[in-house]
Structure formats: C-alpha cells, structure tokens
Amino acid sequence: MQLQFFPSRTLALYVGRAFLIRSFVVLIMLVLVLMTLDLLGQSEEILAPAGNGEAELWHYVGLRLPQIVARFLPFSVLLGTLVTLTGMNQNSEIVSMKAAGLSAHQILAPLMLAALGIAAVSYTFNERIVTRATAALEAWQAVDYGPIPRESGIKTNVWVRDGNNLINAGAVTGRGNATKLRDIEMFNRIENRLVNVVRAPTASYDPATRSWLFHDARQFDVGRGTMRQVGTVRAATNVRPDQFTLAKVNADGLAFQPLQQAIGDLRDAGRPTSALESTLWHKISGPLSALLMPLLGSVSAFGLARSGHLFVRAVIGMGLGFTYFVADNFSLAMGNLGAYPPFIAAWAPFLLFLLLGESVLVRTEE
C-alpha cells in the first residue's frame, strides 16, 4: 500500500471533494469582498464621463472580475488547504489515516491531483478570458472610462535596429509593403562609434530589392561636422516593414501564443524583450503555483491537535504560502528589470518552494 498514491478511492474522493469545496468557497468570499472594495474605489471615475451610469458600472465589474479571480485563485487554494487539513487534523481524521497505514504523501495525493486540475482550469481561464478582459479594460481606462476611439493605425517614435545601426521613425503609417515612414533618422555606426546620421522627411519600402528608399535625404558627417544633400538613399536591407509597425506589446493582454510571436518580432527588430519573456514563462508557472499550495500548507495537517500546536502549524503553513507569493513577485520584478534571466525569474521561486515544501514534509512526517 505504501507504493500506491491512491490506496483508497473512497478516501481520495472524500479528501479531494472537501478540498475543492473549501477552496472555491474561500475564492467566492475573497472575490466578493475585493470586487466590492475595488468598485467603491473606481465608481467615481467610471461615472465621471457624461452619459455613464449603472450599465458602465456593471461593464467594469465584468472586465475586472476575471482579473481578481485569476490573481487570488492561488491564495484561495492555500487557504482552502489550511482549512481542510486543519479541520481533519482537529477531528483526528489525519490520525486515523496514518493509523490505517497511509503515508503523508498518500494523504496529500488527492489534494495535489485536485490542485493540478485547478492549475489547468486557471491556465485556460487566463488564456481565454483574463487576457481579453485585461486588454479591453486597459483600453477603456486609457480614455478615462469614456468612449473608446477607433485606432488610427499611426505609430510614433519607433526605433529599429539594423545590424550595428539604429533607425528612428517619427511616424509610421500603413502596413506590409505599403508602410510609409516620416521624419526618419538613421544612425550609422562602426564598432559602436557614430560615423554619420542620415535624415529624410519620408521613406518607403521597395519590395523588389527588400530595402528602404530614403527620399530627399541629408547626411551629417560626424567626423567633419558637415551636412550635405544625398538625394534618394537605399538602405536598411535587413529591416522588414512589420518591424516598424509593431505597437507596444501588452503582455497581460495577450495569450501565450500571440505573446510568443510578438516577442519574436520584437527580437528581430532589435528591441529588448527580457521583461516580456519573464511574463511569457510566468503565464505557465503562475497557474502551476496552485500545485504548490497543498504541499506548503501540509504542515498544518500533521502533529497532534491536542498538543496545542495546531494553530502554530497553521500559521507556519500560511507563512510559507505567502512567502512564496512575495518571492514570486520579487523574482518577476527582477526579471522585468533584467537582473534575472527570464526563465529563472519565472520558474526559480516555484522550483525553490517545491523543494522546500517537499523537504519539510519528508523531514517531519516521512
């Protein structure tokens, strides 16, 4: 029986069902309280534009609610774990399970399986609903909860790297081969030393030669300090039109696949992507944090309830869980700043606390 993770189907269903019910009850209570407080704080700004009323308040709730659910689902799993295991310990159910020959890992196995299911649901929920709600809410907040204007398609102050050279376009219009540039500056460098600057009022893409034509261009020679007219200049043969038309990427408003494609386009354009890559990997490690919560909260399951240490063990379990969230946010912030590699920033806290929780469980109960 020690080699079986689920030696009793009836017991596994009982523990798993109790854990799921308590986790979702905690989630509902958290969401109701937090959504009410958030709406109270934002209602004045939502109702400020002329014509906004109750419908806009409910629209805000519909967009904000998925964000709150996604953010606090791991917290609810942690609290659900503590409530479930503390109650079973207090009622001597854990003692009965251990007396029947179940190990600590076998007692936790139904919770881990249920948490894995929650992580899968959380990932799907984030990909399908949260990203769209986030993008819509940020667009609405950008106009102070007023009518959202139709996108003009004009992008300003766009930078692109061409090998060792840098190109800045004051304005970009159109898409594909019809992309047009205005107020262009091309900084030609050799071994990171600026040699000359080419300026042109307009530029267009030539698909036949896959290069850009800078019209009525002027060239400033840095070494001589002179300016001269050079007419039409053909340059930037390694720069595609879509590298200029890339807008600012909202990582929270994109699903995993579109964000991965946007990162690839930005990388080809020579733009920094470390912050976006950290968020990309966190789209997987974030939902999987639900899998850690039964392990970190398991310290409240064991030990004799009559010893008087049950409350202390529950506090320790809660402390471990909240410490993980602090470490996860800190690591993600370091990844956004470029201090940590993106993969490490997203996965290091998860792996660290997985080993920590397993070590505590083995040392104390196995």
TrEMBL record:
Subcellular location: Cell membrane
Organism: Sphingobium subterraneum
Bilayer topology: Multi-pass membrane protein
Alphabetized NCBIfam families for the sequence: LptG_lptG
InterPro entries, alphabetized: LptG, LptG/LptF_permease
Any one Pfam family match given in the protein's UniProt record, by short name: LptF_LptG
PANTHER family in UniProt: LIPOPOLYSACCHARIDE EXPORT SYSTEM PERMEASE PROTEIN LPTG, SLR0882 PROTEIN-RELATED
Keywords recorded for this protein, A-Z: Cell membrane, Membrane, Transmembrane, Transmembrane helix
UniProt keyword annotation of Iron-sulfur present: no
GO cellular component, as recorded: ATP-binding cassette (ABC) transporter complex
Main location: membrane
Entry protein name: Lipopolysaccharide export system permease protein
Transmembrane segments: 12-37, 107-125, 310-327, 339-362
GO biological process: lipopolysaccharide transport; transmembrane transport
